[in-house]
Amino acid sequence: MAETRARPLSPHLQIYRPMLTMLMSIAHRVTGAALYFGTLLVAWWLIAAASEPNYYGAVQWFMGTVVGRLVLFGYTWALIHHMLGGVRHLIWDTGRGLGPAEREWLARANLFGSISLTMVLWIAGVLLVGGAGGR
Amino acid sequence: MSLRTPLGRVRGLGSARSGTRHFWHQRLTSVAGVPLSIFFVVLVVSLIGRNHAAAVQILGSPWIAILMLLFILTITYHMQIGMQEIIEDYAHGEVSKLVLLIANTFFSIAIGLASAFAILKISFGV
Ligand code: HEM
């Protein structure tokens, strides 16, 4: 019987050095999936607004708790990050931005943009509510 | 020998049994999704401090309601296509893939319909 040699396998995930462009690609999928389930929150909020004031108040109360705020913060960041990542995809669809330097630059802009925009939005939101404890 | 054209033979193949329609619609809904998502985030932030009556008044005004409907329809269609792509990448059994694809379609339609119903109910005030 012929000796069994380990057959060559195509390289899989764990063989690559983590790179920013790769992480951003994964982040696009993960944020997309998170937003998918996040639409449950959007629908819940809209249904509450279409119901009586007490129910809406309860949803607002939940969104005001630490857990609620964390979920909302995550949702905001995911939406902005995924949106900017989507714009990156649309740029690539035109055949532009695919060079090594541009890819790196776009990945950085994606991450930096989503974090700073989320911060700006939340600071604006907290100012509108008038302090972290507001409803 | 087959009388089918080369195009006819490959149509309806691929893991989704469809051609580039999903690819194109994913792009369409992405382009529409950029302004609509920005609108949605701004709307939510502007509603933060308000009570039910104020929120209903704003959500029920025609332009806001129309934009919200567009946002909901765009993202539920977009996410249905997107999740289908994820399922096709990771679900390898034919049965489990089919079950997940069905669940994905049901979920997306249910979310879209429930949200649209809520927006219309707020607008018409019944
Ligand atoms: C709440 C809103 C959204 C949800 C629930 C959502 C969901 C998803 C999901 C589940 C995927 C599949 C991910 C993958 O295949 O890796 C996806 C892909 C995509 N999304 Fe979104 N998305 C949303 C908003 C947006 C917006 C605003 C844009 C704007 C540009 C966008 C652009 C894209 C693009 C271009 C892809 C395809 C990526 C690829 O070809 O790999 N999405 N989205």
Secondary structure topology:
The complex is a heterodimer of chains A (135) and B (126).
Chain A: H1 20-49, H2 53-64, H3 66-93, H4 100-129
Helix pairs in contact in A: 1-2, 1-3, 3-4
Chain B: H1 6-10, H2 21-47, H3 52-60, H4 62-90, H5 94-124
Helix pairs in contact in B: 2-4, 3-5, 4-5
The structure holds protoporphyrin IX containing FE.
Protoporphyrin IX containing FE sits between chains A (28-29, 32-33, 35-36, 39, 79, 82-83, 86-87, 89) and B (26, 30, 33-34, 37, 75, 78-79, 82-83, 85-86).
Q: Any key phrases for this structure?
A:
heterodimer, A: 135 residues, mainly alpha, 3 helical TM bundles of succinate and fumarate reductases, 4 helices, elongated, disordered C terminus, B: 126 residues, 5 helices, 80% helix, binds protoporphyrin IX containing FE
Can you describe what's shown?
The complex is a heterodimer of chains A (135) and B (126). Chain A has 135 residues and is an all-alpha fold. Chain A is built from four helices and no strands. The longest helix of chain A is centred in the first third of the chain and has 30 residues, at 20-49. Mean pLDDT of chain A is 89; it is low at 131-135. Chain B is mostly helical and 126 residues long. Chain B has one domain (21-124): Fumarate reductase/succinate dehydrogenase, transmembrane subunit (3 helical TM bundles of succinate and fumarate reductases), CATH 1.20.1300. In chain B, helix 2 packs across helix 4 and helix 3 (52-60) packs across helix 5 (94-124). The model of chain B has no long low-confidence stretch (mean pLDDT 91). The interface between A and B is medium-sized, with 34 and 34 residues. Bound molecules: protoporphyrin IX containing FE. Protoporphyrin IX containing FE sits between chains A (28-29, 32-33, 35-36, 39, 79, 82-83, 86-87, 89) and B (26, 30, 33-34, 37, 75, 78-79, 82-83, 85-86).
